[in-house]
Amino acid sequence: MVGLSLVHPFPRLQRPLAQTSKPVVHVFLQLDAKSSVVEKTLQQHLPELGIVVFGRFRDFEEGLSNGHPDAVLSIAPVLEQRGKTASLQGQRGGKPTEPYLLASVNQPLEGSLAGKTIGVVDLLGRDGTQAFVNGLLRATDIKIKRVAKIEDLLPLLEFSAADGIVLPSSMLGRLLERTRLAIKTKELPGGPVGLPAVAVLNPTVRDLVVKSFQNLDVPTKRLLGIDSWSVQ
Amino acid sequence: MTVFNARNWRMASLSTPLLLLLACATTGGEPGAGAAILPPIADPPTRSGAPTVLIAMPNSPNFVEVRRSLVSEVQKSFNVHTVTVAPETTVADLASAIRSVSPVCVVLMNNATMNLYRQYQTANPTAAMPPAVLLMASLVEEVQARLRRATGIAYEVPGVTAFVQLRSVISTPISRVGVVYRPAFRAFVERQKSLADKEHVDLISASVPNDVTAAGLREALHTLATTNKVDAVWMLNDNGLVRDAEFVDEAWRLELNDAKLPLIVGVPNLVEPNSPLGTLAVVPDHEALGLQAANLLFDLSENDWQVETHPVELPLSVKTVVDIKLVRANFGLRPDALKHIDKALE
Hints:
Radius of gyration of chain A: 18 Å
Number of domains of chain B: 2
CATH topology of the largest domain in chain A: D-Maltodextrin-Binding Protein, domain 2
Number of strands of chain B: 12
Mean pLDDT of chain B: 89
CATH topology of the largest domain in chain B: Rossmann fold
Helix content of chain A: 25-40%
CATH superfamily of the largest domain in chain A: Periplasmic binding protein-like II
Largest sheet of chain B: 7 strands, mixed
CATH class of the largest domain in chain A: Alpha Beta
CATH class of the largest domain in chain B: Alpha Beta
Structural class of chain A: alpha/beta
Oligomer: heterodimer
Strand order of the largest sheet of chain B: 7-6-8-9-10-11-12
Number of domains of chain A: 2
Shape of chain A: globular
Strand order of the largest sheet of chain A: 2-1-3-12-4-13
Distance between the termini of chain A: 43 Å
Number of helices of chain B: 11
Number of helices of chain A: 9
CATH superfamily of the largest domain in chain B: Response regulator
Strand content of chain B: 15-25%
Radius of gyration of chain B: 21 Å
Largest interface: A-B, 37 and 38 residues
Low-confidence stretches of chain A: 1-18
Mean pLDDT of chain A: 90
């Protein structure tokens, strides 16, 4: 029996509200779980919504253009790049943001980062991700290596293919759990970065979408990396 | 406990897909490539003044998936011209395509395509060659050495990646991993040792001759399990070690059944709860490989296409298939492991 399916490269649900009779929510987050697991969990806990989880930026971008979702769940930089405003902001420990870290092997990357290669998950496309990392590091002459998934950052360090990697502080525990490398970190000066937030694009379904996400149980919110929501 | 099922069932379930998949791993073909009917590949509209990247590849699913991801990344910066390579494609066909689009770079997918390109280079010994990026072929480092102006991304999943994945799935400790190899894989295995060492894994290797018998292979596996006391075994994607279902049964299945060690494999078909053998399959993530190839193209273009100084990269991204039933029965499933597995079978 197949317990979990492989993540589909293409979104499986791109129909607008009229066809599904459910508001469609596109989700693009880098979490401590496979996209298929996040999608299945959200679909189970939000049966009144049509949930599509994207594991990769390009698929998310394509889905946003062609799928006409009623709402989007992602982190602030992704929503801002698209000119979307959050209706519901996720929080953890009472804060709507989290620090981002620069992780490296054996010693923290101190001093000038000029010419360094930094690994990062592709959240915003080539130019957008470069600008995002430049802002976090307060540097302009770094070279980024984009990876598709958060777990692909570790091989960059194992293969010495990058001098350091950028990741949300909430992902550090999972990284340390996976590796025996001596990981050192420092908090990035250009942070913190917003936690997952919901932007409602179709005002007619705002109340339903907001209430549905507000009613998520504790484990599901934890899966999303938050513990509460605040209405914006 | 591992269940040992009827042999004829195993033959039926394993032989064809296994052999096709292993052909993929070692020769660059693809399972079902002959049978799959895919639509012709359509390139994005050409833009005047943009440099062209020529992609030469078979028109079969995994290659198409890598191309799709690659093209989605590079199409804003490059025109893309795709040449479908089939068994009947000749060097002249490839040469004609190169002449007609004058690419700034060629992307070559699979060993057969690279062999054609090598013949093209041999036939034009003094001509300037466009830089080449090699993808989805076995032992890309060795192919690179036989070509002028080439770099690429290895297709074999590094052992360390597989070992870290296994650690994140099973509870039993993994600090010594055994691998059996034939001479063609000697350099590959040696490279894996230093990488594995970074994650505190000792890779214990055992060489066997090219014409190793099932009994000889079983003996090598037995020595790894009993004398070297490895915690897990890593099966290389080498046709010579996985010739057919009978060979698999007589060497791998018999020994692993006795030793009760986790087996890491490189093809999903060897992970089958109804006929247990592989514990974990670690396979390339083709969509992510397309992104990595795009990054490589951008890097090269920013460095004036100096491919000679760019070493072959290792693949960064994988997908995992796990026999959860086998893991639970023999090795213990780590908490939260299911969140991190692409496909869990039981």
